[in-house]
Amino acid sequence: NAGVMQNPRHLVRRRGQEARLRCSPMKGHSHVYWYRQLPEEGLKFMVYLQKENIIDESGMPKERFSAEFPKEGPSILRIQQVVRGDSAAYFCASSPAGGQLDTQYFGPGTRLTVL
Amino acid sequence: AQSVTQLGSHVSVSEGALVLLRCNYSSSVPPYLFWYVQYPNQGLQLLLKYTTGATLVKGINGFEAEFKKSETSFHLTKPSAHMSDAAEYFCAVILYNTDKLIFGTGTRLQVFP
Fold it and tell me: What is the pLDDT of residues B67-83, one digit of tens each?
């Protein structure tokens, strides 16, 4: 059973470009979480999605960031007009049923560098 | 605001020595507690978690942690360090009625031969 897949693993963008980060959850998992890890910091929650629904986006910056988890295909975290401060590792996690007791399984992350 | 504090961003031990990584949380209601490990360029792997019941929790790779409500702590221990334990360790909580993990800033463990 493959784990959580994220691609690309490394992404380089120039200021003003768009970044698209993809996350394929584990098979059978319908809940996806996105976290961001800034240098020398812990992971910070961004958004929690179920298929076709955003459940909690309290950690998402108000502008330029969006996330989706369509009925078919991976979850996408989209960052428009990237700035240097967006440089970070972005981790996706998935769980089978959501809820506090459900373990979140993490992917290897996408490391975004903004030049 | 609810938070998780990990004392010591770097911990160094000799191979075979006791590992102790500290974690304290601030919450009026005891949350669910987790320890994750991150190896270089990899995602986070769950070591162990406390939800309810026995306060001493055993995890993978010989690690264990004890939930102490009176001290609001959930320290991670391993009796004898191995070189392969070198990694970054994150303590995290999930608060009541939420699904999002709140992480500490991490502790980097170095193991010397």
Answer: 998 999 999 999 999 99
